[in-house]
Write a structure and sequence with these properties.
single chain, mainly alpha, 4 domains, two-stranded antiparallel ribbon, rod-shaped, Putative microtubule-associated protein, MAP65/Ase1/PRC1, MAP65_Ase1_PRC1, microtubule binding, cytoskeleton
Length: 558
């Protein structure tokens, strides 16, 4: 019962003094000796000392750990601030006052905030670098760069570095946009060229790169250096093909038109090839119609040219005589005399003999026509002067008849018109000497330049007949010294029946080339022989045919 009571106090608050008192009471009851009591107290004291030591050591260790944690926190803080490029960060305590735990408690939220900021910054760097790496891979055409994850340098996560990456990304995005624009332009050009050339666009563009067909999105199209280079090469190749095909088509068009003109092809038949001939003078950029330069269209034109060539060979005589007629018309307009029957006979003989290719004969005749045109052009100025001289002589002849008319001043119908004509005729007649001088000078200059005599429908007058023209009439016979100098009636060279069958004209000139005016007298009419221009004289057909330099006798023989 006593023991129970003694334990009850243990249920209350225990202290070292109360426990020691209880221990002494127990010893008293037990009857422990003083020696035993001292030994047990010494033991108890040693045990208490050990407990204190352990507690002190634990406390010291805890303090050391806290100090290390604080040091690590400060190091980590410095590292984070350095990596983030933060020189000044709000919230960092300015002094280190306070206990270790207080200092740790103050720095921990800052570290947490900086860690969160670091993670966000790493994500930003990763996103930017991923985009940079992807675009670089697209430009280089390296798929491994596109799929690989970027390596972020966590030692430098500053905003300055991030801005550098962002600037690089913007430049790359701009370059990508420009490249994509170029690619789309090239693809569009290839599409248009394929349409004009009649080629399969899909197969052509996928040969360059599979991503360039219409089924893929714009952003998925290849923009690599290799793709751009192949697109440039493809466009250049297609443009060269277009240029060559257009040149070929224009050559065929020219041949078709020449053959049609030679054989007088009906307009309805020509319309069947309007889609070919419409580009005869077009530039490469003008041809944009789908299929305009397709190979089957060119082959169709080639077949038609071959067909017309065969048809031309069967109609060779008809075509040759058509060209001969053109040549004779040029000669006739230029008042050049040729033996048309002999020329046509030689053409017939050549065709029948088969010794010359039809194309060679036609080419030779085309050459003759060009030479004849050049010859006619060189004679044009002189022929114009001859026409003016003939017209003036006709007016002079009319004026003579008018002056001999005794009733010319009567108030008859039309008398005033004849009076006005007479006034104009007198002015024109006074210009005849100067006109003749000009004609003679031009004719001589032409003959000196060409080294041959100038002929007019086969007639010619030798220079030795012109030596004394100052005191003789330029045209017509020398006037008798017993007669006054007067205007004469002369027959135009065409009155003798020129090649062209032109109507007869009455021609005359003044008696002198030195500018003296002819005196018109009524009632006095002098018969003189028919005269030709100063350099006209009757000549043989053989001489007349020799005037055209460089013209083959096949087509221009006398």
């Amino acid at each position: 019962m006593a023991v129970t009571e003694a334990q009850n106090p243990l249920l209350g608050e225990n202290t070292c003094g109360s426990l020691l008192k209880k221990l002494q009471q127990i010893w008293d009851e037990v009857g422990e000796s003083d020696e035993q009591r001292d030994q047990m107290l010494l033991q108890l004291e040693q045990e208490c000392l050990d407990v204190y030591k352990r507690k002190v050591m634990q406390a010291a260790k805890s303090r050391a750990e806290l100090l290390q944690a604080l040091s690590d926190a400060n190091v980590e803080l410095s590292s984070l601030l350095s990596a983030l490029g933060e020189k000044n960060f709000a919230g960092i305590p300015e002094n280190t006052a306070g206990t270790i735990k207080e200092q740790l408690a103050a720095i921990e939220p800052i570290l947490e905030q900086l860690w969160q900021q670091k993670e966000e910054r790493i994500k930003e760097f990763s996103d930017v670098q991923s985009q940079i790496q992807k675009i670089c891979g697209e430009i280089a055409g390296n798929l491994s760069l596109i799929d690989a994850l970027p390596e972020v340098d966590e030692s430098d996560l500053s905003l300055k570095k991030l801005n550098e990456y962002q600037s690089e990304l913007q430049q790359l995005q701009k370059e990508k946009s420009e490249r994509l624009h170029k690619v789309l332009e090239f693809v569009s050009t290839v599409h248009d060229l394929c349409a004009v050339l009649g080629l399969d666009f899909f197969s052509t563009i996928t040969e360059v790169h599979p991503s360039l067909n219409d089924s893929t999105g714009v952003q998925s199209k290849s923009i690599s250096n290799e793709t751009l280079a192949r697109l440039v090469k493809t466009v250049l190749t297609l443009k060269e093909d277009k240029k060559q095909r257009l040149h070929k088509l224009q050559e065929l068009s020219s041949q078709l038109i020449d053959l049609w003109n030679l054989m007088d092809t009906h307009p309805e038949e020509r319309k069947l090839f309007d889609h070919v001939t419409c580009y005869i003078s077009a530039s490469v950029d003008d041809v944009t119609v789908t299929g305009a330069l397709a190979l089957d269209l060119i082959e169709q034109a080639e077949v038609e040219v071959d067909r017309l060539d065969q048809l031309k060979a069967s109609r060779m005589k008809e075509i040759a005589f058509k060209k001969q007629t053109e040549l004779e018309e040029i000669f006739a307009r230029a008042h050049i005399e040729v033996d048309t029957e002999a020329s046509r006979a030689k053409i017939m003989a050549l065709i029948d003999s088969g010794n010359i290719e039809p194309t060679e004969l036609l080419a030779d005749m085309d050459n003759q026509i060009e030479n004849a045109k050049e010859e006619a052009l060189s004679r044009k100025d002189i022929l114009d002067k001859v026409e003016k001289w003939m017209s003036a002589c006709e007016e002079e002849s009319w004026l003579e008849d008018y002056n001999r008319d005794e009733n010319r001043y009567n108030a008859s119908r039309g008398a005033h018109l004849n009076l006005k004509r007479a006034e104009k005729a007198r002015i024109l007649v006074n210009k005849i000497p100067a006109l003749v001088d000009t004609l003679v000078a031009k004719t001589r200059a032409w003959e000196e330049d060409h080294g041959m005599s100038f002929t007019y429908d086969g007639d010619q007058k030798k220079y030795n007949e012109l030596q004394n023209t100052e005191q003789e009439p330029v045209f017509g016979s020398r006037p008798s010294s017993a007669r006054p100098v007067s205007a004469k009636k002369l027959a135009s060279p065409r009155t003798n029946g020129g090649t062209n069958g032109t109507p007869n004209r009455r021609l005359s000139i003044n008696a002198h080339q030195n500018g003296s005016k002819s005196t018109l007298k009524e009632g006095k009419k002098e018969n003189v022989r028919a005269a030709a221009p100063v350099n006209y004289v009757t000549m043989s057909k053989e001489d007349a045919a020799s005037h055209v330099s460089g013209i083959e006798p096949i087509l221009a023989s006398p």
